[in-house]
Amino acid sequence: MRREAVVVGIGRTAFSKASGRTPLAMAAEAARAALDDAGMPATEVDGVIDFHTSDSAAATDVGRAIGAVDLGLAMDVTGGGNVAVTVVGQALAAVQAGACDTVVVFRSLNGRSGNRYGKGDRPAVQMRGDLQFAALHGYVIPSMWIAMFAQRQKHVFGLTDEDFGHIAITTRKHATANPHAMQRTPLDMETYLSSRWINEPFRLYDCCLETDGAVALIVTTRERAGHLRQTPIRVAGFGEAHTNGGSWTAFPDMSQMYSAYAAKRLWNSTDLRPSDIDVACMYDCFTATTMATVGDFGLCPRGETGTFFAEGKATYGGEVVVNPHGGLLSEGYLHGLNHHYEAVLQLRGQAGERQVRGAEHALVTAGAGPSGGALIYEVAP
Q: From CA 24, how far away is CA 21, in angstroms rounded?
């Protein structure tokens, strides 16, 4: 009989610009914090899954560091934020299949003080496939690639710079209530528009915060969860899409992203609808990612995300609260695993000042451009 798998623990380190620590040390701290949150000993862990771009610690090393020395599953997944849903799905599948009973899922990196995605002198992403030709022209960092999607969005939908600004401003407003967020200073449109260019049409505040830190989740069986400390959280919908060979330069419609494909699988996997979502932790490496995915997943009509934010429909008292923690734009860029942390916290009712009242369903997305996924969390009955 297939077993039900649930999330029972969440943990993280401090987020900073210079941790002064190894990814292994931070991963172990986050994993121990997640186990403590769940009320489980490390000796019960028999699976570890992580994702990385050659910038992290190995699953087996983290297992040994926390005292889990007999792993039935040790998986190092190559990828950035595009696989932040994939790894949770793999953990759930492993527990459901009986391959292991308790899995630590983690992301740990020195994304600011180590190998920075946005710097470009030592690209953090492999220049494979068609990117190897684009790299000859200096087209090597994500802000360049996704800026092309933003330009297409502006052309197709008639968007303005202010449309992107409303996303950054709302996200920052949410972060002011999050003591863990790296940026909590309120942002207004004048400050947004006067900030320096990164890659047009992206200004400084359109871009996520490269961050040092780690986040971990604990996945185990529903039966075991009944004897643990926290309310178990299950997945009520799931869908991924890794499209067009992962090409950033040959995506067929840059007014959309992977989400136009993944949304079909997500909503076909559940009886829930976009109107049922209370909290949406949308992967926001750049404002253009939010611009595309909020529409593609049906939270508002495509092309109207800027207006949706401007009219207060993406915040408290609106239709759905998008990134109540401040997201990758203001809390920190842990490649999206911090979105899972926030979703679980909200569904438990433990988010403090930023708690979304009556939150029952949380959408979490991951990725941008051609590749990514989404899932829906809910409290397990």
A: 8
* Cβ proximity of 16 and 110 under 8 Å: no
Of the residues 192, 261, 333, 341, which is catalytic?
333
Neighbours of 65 (CB within 10 A): 17
Model pTM score? 0.97
Q: Is the pLDDT of residue 2 over 80?
A: no
Nearest alpha-carbon partner for 343 in 100, 85, 3: 85
Torsion of CA 200, 83, 118, 59, to 10 degrees: 180
Domain 5-115+210-225 classified CATH 3.40.47.10? yes
- CA nearest neighbour of 91 among 31, 57, 47: 47
Q: Please check the confidence at residue 126 and state whether its pLDDT lies above 70.
A: no
> Inter-axis angle of helices 259-268 and 287-296, to 10 degrees?
40
Helices (H), the chain: 23-38, 59-66, 86-97, 131-134, 142-157, 161-175, 189-194, 222-225, 259-268, 287-296, 305-310, 327-330, 337-348
155 in Cβ contact with 253 (< 8 Å): no
CB 376 within 8 Å of CB 361: yes
267 vs 259: CA distance, rounded Å: 12
pLDDT of 262 strictly over 70: yes
The neighbouring-strand residues paired with 372 are 241, 367
Grouping H, G, I as helix, E, B as strand and the rest as coil, residue 154 is: helix
Task: Read off φ and ψ for residue 374, nearest 5 degrees.
Answer: -155, 155
Query: What pLDDT does residue 330 have?
Result: 98
CB 349, CB 202: distance < 8 Å: no
Omega before residue 201 within 30° of 0, cis = yes
Residues 6+ apart with CB under 8 A from 133: none
The domain locations on the chain are: 5-115+210-225
- Catalytic annotation on 333? yes
341 in active site: no
Summarize pLDDT for 222-249 with one digit per residue, the tens: 999 999 999 999 999 999 999 998 888 8
Identified catalytic residue from 283, 316, 341, 377:
283
Both tokens of 377, joined, read 């969390």
Residue pair 374/263 in contact (Cβ under 8 Å)? The answer is yes
Asked if residues 324 and 346 have their Cβ atoms less than 8 Å apart, the reply is: yes
